[in-house]
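Here's what a typical entry looks like (Response regulator transcription factor):
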Amino acid sequence: MSIRVLIADDQELVRTGLRVILDAHADIEVVAEAADGAEAVALARSIRPDVCLLDIRMPVLDGLAATRELAGPGVADPLPVVVITTFDLDEYVYDALRSGARGFLLKGTGAAMLYEAVHAAARGDALIDPNVTVRLIETFAGSAPAPGVQRAAQPATPLTAREEEVLAAVARGLGNAEIGRELHLSLSTVKTHVANVLTKLGLRNRVELAIWAVERGR
C-alpha cells in the first residue's frame, strides 16, 4: 500500500515541488497540503496520514508548535513528523527534534533522500540529513533542553557492549541498514538494540540518542 503523506509549507512553489518529487513514486501518495501549521494539524488529525512533512517557519501556527501537537510527549497517538527546512543553526530546530520530529532534512536535499526519509518515518525509523547530522549534534549537545524536556540520566541498567556500539553508530548519523552492514547484524537485530537503548535511557527517538551520546563522550 502507498505511504500517505501530508505536506505543509507556506510557499506554494515548495509544496508543488515536494508533491512532484513524491508523486513520482508509486508507493507514495500525497493526500493533503497545508499552507500553515494550524491547517496542517487539523488535516493531520482528520485524515491521519502515514507521514507529515512540515516546514518550520509557517504562519498562524509554526512547524515547531505543529510538531508538538502531532508528535509531542503528551500526544497519545503521535503521527510521524519529518521536518524539512533551511538549516541555520536555529535553536528552534533543536526544539522540533526534542518535540518528536522523526526526521530532519534540508530543503536542498536530493529527491532520493526525501524518499528515504518518508519511508523511514513510515516504518517507525528516523533519518537525519547526513550533511547536517554532525553539525546539528555538535551545535545543540550541551545546550539547554527545550521547555518541559528532561535530560536522560545514566541508565539504571547498563548498556551492553553491543548496545554501546549501536549507540555510537546512531551518534554518527547512521541508519539501521548502515549499522547492520557495519556491525554485521540483521536489520531486525539492529532495531531491537535501538529499541532497548531507547528504553534504558528513557528517550523518545534516535535524535535524542545521538545527542545523549555526544554529551557524554560516547
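Strands lie at 3-8, 28-34, 51-54, 81-85, 103-106, 127-128.

More examples are in the samples folder.
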